[in-house]
Amino acid sequence: MTALDDAGPALAAGPAPVGDRRPSTRVRLRAWGEITLFAGPAVLVYLLFVLLPVALAAYYSFFNWNGLGPLERFIGIDNYTRLLADPVFHRSVANNFFIVVMSLLIQGPLAILVALLMNRRLRFRGLLRALIFVPYVLSEVTAGIAWQIMLQSVPPARYGPVDTWLRMLGVENPPAWLADPNVVMWTIFGILTWKYLGLAIILMLAGLAGVPEELYEAAALDGAGWWKTQWYVTVPLLGPTIRIWAFLSIIGSLQLFDMVWIVTGGGPLHASSTMAVYMVEYGLNVTQIGYGSAVAVVLFLISLVIALFYQRFALRRDLQGAVTTGVR
Amino acid sequence: MNRRSIARVTAGVAAAGIAIGALAACSGGGGGDATATSGEEVSITWWHNGTGEPLKSFWEEVAAEFEDANPGVQVTVEAFQNEDLQRTLIPNALQSGGDAAPDLFMVWAEGEIKAQVEAGYLRDLSGLTEVVESVGGAGTGWNVDGKQYGIPFRFGIEGIWYNQDIFDEAGISENPATFTEFDADIDKIAATGVAPIGVGAADGWPAAHWWYQFAIKTCSAESLQQAADTLTFDDPCFVEAGENLKAWMDGFPGDLPFQANPTSTPAQSVPNSSAGLLASGATSMELMGTWHRGEVAKLVPGAPADNPPSPEWLRWMPVPDIEGADGAPGAALGSGDAWGVYKDAPDQTLDLLSYIMSVDVQTRFAETGEIPTVAGAEAGISDPVLMQIAEGTQNATLVVTWLDTQYGPVIGKAMNDAIVNLMFGDGTPQQVPDAMNAAAATL
Fold first, then answer.
1. Residue B296 sits in which domain range?
2. Do residues B168 and B285 both lie within one domain?
3. C-alpha distance from A190 to closest chain B C-alpha (Å)
4. Residue A66 DSSP SS3
């Protein structure tokens, strides 16, 4: 519990009375004018382009609608029952969670480790930081097409660059990176790690910059070695950064679309499909807009529930006053 | 950061599926006024998918000619990438209606056009008797309930594109007429170390076309028609088609008759696509429609970016017949692209359409390397390969529209997925019609 919560009685007493004169009409009008002026456009855009589409998608999801003509064929929850029974959708959800878990288990520690190493005095530190960040700067589609071309092989006629290099190193039969249903998700995860590790490292480095120098001096005086210092001083103080990174990573993984769409299109045989890929394939591309909307709603709910839980339990200390902290 | 951004991203994705008029509105132009009389300014918007040259300039030229001949009429021609056009732009624009809707635009056949007709977006073109008659049987796919809603301007059957140099090297002197001869040729090519047939199964449909070929050669014309009319696929010939296809594939060792890693090979655009493999001589054959000539030409190593010439070794043959199969001998798969007219389009749009479909314009269209539909326009074809396709199209006893187009996108998608799973996964022949019936139930 926070200090504010512990204050108990004072909190319950509510704000102290501030005199009984209400502010004059002019002052109130002015205040509302300012609020409208500053918040109005943002609220309007938010309502129009965020809340309204979400509400519309939820509405469409109860119809059998191909996007043409009026909404006439109300089918209740049929879209949802069909969706929840589809093995391809199950696979897509599982793939999303595979990326969520693997990102947290592998990308996080890796990023912290690299950030710790790069936080020391190194030659060419600036250059190294820039290089690590380069993949993140590249557009998703450009990077995706490049990887697709590098990994796609048609042995024995044509090997992609990656397989050609591996064969030079003596690996005769490299895995079918994109064609083997058992390998493809690992390939995707590898590409995503390449692409997003830079962002994680930059975030961690920013977090490291906020660790006070005195603590290191104190640790050194107490005789702690480099590793011990990192483990007992740096990593705990990096907590808020790690939690925010993990949050971004989880949400990004749940909504994964572009890289998969470009590199594999969800294939082979749906082995790398994700929820968003499934939505486009079975909703938009086959013009079953109602069904696609149902997928969107499920994707939204899964993301929302996870986000709220994460805020409630993991980010509680970092986000004072956020939506869920009032819930007790 | 958090709820709001999740909502925003999710909603953004969701919104992609929602027909917001914004996109269509950006296109400008506008639908014009149906009641415009001569003397008033009339504007016509025309959308097509010819983003590449020489077609893009050609359509602009045709529009300019029409404007010159019809003072007061302004034609705005816009080219869009094919999938964007058919899946996003046109549906959104039609949904928005009014000025946002294009007046003249491309429509796909059968199940695709049917959805637009049922929603009441298309104008009945049956009144253009001369035009309808000039395209003959090619127009069937755009006829809904006896009324003509689309006029095809490009139409051809698919066949096997092959590399003559590799055929020569393998010692194949004559094109196979039956699948038995075809199998022998495949073995000969495999012996040279080249993968005989390329297939871009990552995209689904290129692999599925093999099943379609077996289906039209296994099912009778009546069974096919009945399936298309009722959208029920209980005829045993649909299972048999899959069995025949699988038996044919199982007759070869390993990945043969196709190249390795078919399910990660896309069909077009990149060097390691099936078109790229054929273009670079890594495979010797590919089953594809008339557009493939251009796709291969683009990917020949060292080809110029603008107007790449068709490679000299590229040839075409009809798909061989399967001996003993029940299907109509000489049946072929094919389709084309057609023009449709928006319900509220100005009347001058019909004049424009008639002009586009005139023998003169169609002949010049053929000269750009296309296969026209209007009788007499085939004189414009100079390329021997295209002449062969035009001839094959005329000789076909029955031209069946691509099955996925015919049954519409929902059944089409389920069918193609099941076929890829049958060919390259653990699917069974029975699962193909099962998936089609299941998809039909969601319509």
1. 159-333+401-441
2. yes
3. 17
4. coil
